[in-house]
Each structure stands twice: as C-alpha cells, then as structure tokens.
Amino acid sequence: MVEGEHELLVRGGKDELEHGRQIESAILALRQAPAERGDRECSQRWRAMMGRNMFAAAEVERIRDLLRKKVRATSSEQKAIRASLRRIGFFITDFAITMDGFTMSDFDDLVEHGEITVSGDMQQGPSRPPSITRAGRVPPTANRVRQREAGVVLPDVLDRNMKVVFCGTAVGEHSARRGAYYAGPGNQFWNILAEIGLTPLRLPPEQFASLAQYGIGLTDLVKRRFGQDDILSRADFDVEEFKEKIEKYAPKAVGFNGKKAAQLVLASPSVEYGLQTDKIGTAALFVLPSTSGAARGFWNPRYWFHLARFVG
C-alpha cells in the first residue's frame, strides 16, 4: 500500500480507493493506446496529461473548494485533498511544475484561459471572490482581452550587446496580474534559465528586471494588450517595432519562446525548432519550445541547451 492509501481507506472507504484505482487504470490505458485521431497534437497533449481538462459545473465548484481548503491544510490533510482532486480527474501536475504553490486563483486562471473547459451552465467560468477580481473586468463576449488605456503591459528588459533576448507573443493574464514575465501556472521559463546556466539560480518572476545583469533581455510582440494568442488580433502584433529593437540593441541571439512568435517575425507558417538561417541585423535567431504550462506536452529542453551553448 502506497503512502496515503491507508488514510483514504479510513476517510473514504474501500469504494473510494477502488474508484481512484479505476481512474488511474483508465488514464494509463489512454496514454498507452495508439493514436486513432488525425490530430496528432491533440493526441500528444492528452498523452502528456494524467487527468482531464473538461469538468461539469459541480465538479469545478468542488475543485475550487478543495483548493481553498488546501491553503491552510496540514501535510496529512493535503494528501487527502490531492487524492480527492485526483478522484475528480484533476491533476495539479498537468498544469503546474509544483503542487505546493498551486491555488484556487491559479485554477480560475486556467478556466479563464480556456485550458480547462466547464460544461453545463457555467461556460463563463466560476466567479472569483472580490479580493481577486480585476477592476473593470470585461464580459466573456469580449474574449477576455484586456487593454490598458496607456503604456505597455510589461516593460522591456533591453540593453546593448546582450547575450540573448527572449521574445514571446503576448503577456498572459496571470503574468499581467502579477506584473511579471512568465508567471503563469506551470510556466517553466525561470526553471530552464537556471538549468541551462544562463542564471546562477532560479529567479522569481518578479525579479525579471535583474536578468539584464546576466546579459538576458525580455520583450513580446504584443506590448499593449494581454491574453491568449488565439484571442488577440493580427493588428496587436507589432513585428516591425520588434525588429527595430533588435537591430538597435544588437544582442548575440534572439530566442523565440514558442513557434507562434517566430512564425510572425519570419513571415512563415512553418518553422522548425533550433537555429534559423535568417537573422535580424547581426542577431542569430533560435526557435524554442514554449515554456507555457499549456504546452507541457510538447516540452523539450534540448533546444534551450543549444541556445545556451551558442551564447556562451
């Protein structure tokens, strides 16, 4: 018997434990089954996930209630809470690198971004308590794209002759709320920077400005709006402004965090990971697997190590 199962037997009875085993068995079968759908990416994403990303309204409320209790729960209580979440079919590790810091607010962000779908009468997602509700929140019919009346969502981190400037498409809502780059649930950006040796340790997202001292820059193609790529219009992406920045600051390399930004800059619907033949000014261009938690199923750090070796 693995750790935590005895507690489940006491708390929930043998029927709950057997139900959990049935779920895990079904998930294992799904991950091992050959792909039968034509959509290869969809198949890979589901193989990468342990649980589900579609839940009924009642299940969403139950998940939120468990995550609310998890914040103040003891170690043993947290094990029982995680077991209850798994029985529903929600695995925190599908969306976050660590389970410890995952909160109800993070779950609500996943719902807002469409990474978790709510069936039934709650398609617009669960309501948030007033303490975490954005002022001036627009209705779902506006596609949840926010626009600030003045200024950019996050400032660039740019200086002349940097080793590398990382470029994404747009700041996500979670990052915009925290006022920091790559701060969404499960984003691996700050972990991979430390892993490949570009930073001496894992920096918290709020210290993004300190990357300049390591010769690392940050920017996005969309500077004055934020939200998911698929709900931003083509006019939001200022490719020419981005190219002007790179030509002005002349980093050794540009690292596109995901293919979408590279496709727009290179004006090509098909790009491959790794070093590109094109340049912007003197800057070499690398296309890297996205660090987003939503792209977890396609994660491959190999290309990030290639970039680190190139910039030295």
Structure notes:
Strands 5-4-7-9-8 form a five-stranded mixed beta sheet, sandwiched between helices. The longest helix is centred in the first third of the chain and has 19 residues, at 14-32. It folds into two domains: 5-132, no CATH class; 153-311, Uracil-DNA Glycosylase, subunit E (3-Layer(aba) Sandwich). A hairpin with a 2-residue loop joins strand 8 and strand 9 (283-288). It starts with a helix and ends with a helix. It is built from eleven helices and nine strands. The chain is elongated. Helix content is 37%, strand content 12%. Mean pLDDT is 76; it is low at 1-17, 30-48 and 121-150. With 312 residues, the chain is of the alpha/beta class. Helix 1 crosses helix 2 (14-32). The chain has helices at residues 5-12, 14-32, 40-48, 57-70, 75-88, 104-112, 173-178, 189-195, 239-249, 259-266, 302-311; strands spanning 54-56, 117-119, 146-147, 164-168, 216-220, 225-226, 253-257, 274-280, 283-288.
Q: What attributes characterize this protein structure?
A:
312 residues; alpha/beta; Uracil-DNA Glycosylase, subunit E; 2 domains; five-stranded mixed β-sheet; two-stranded parallel ribbon; 11 helices; 9 strands
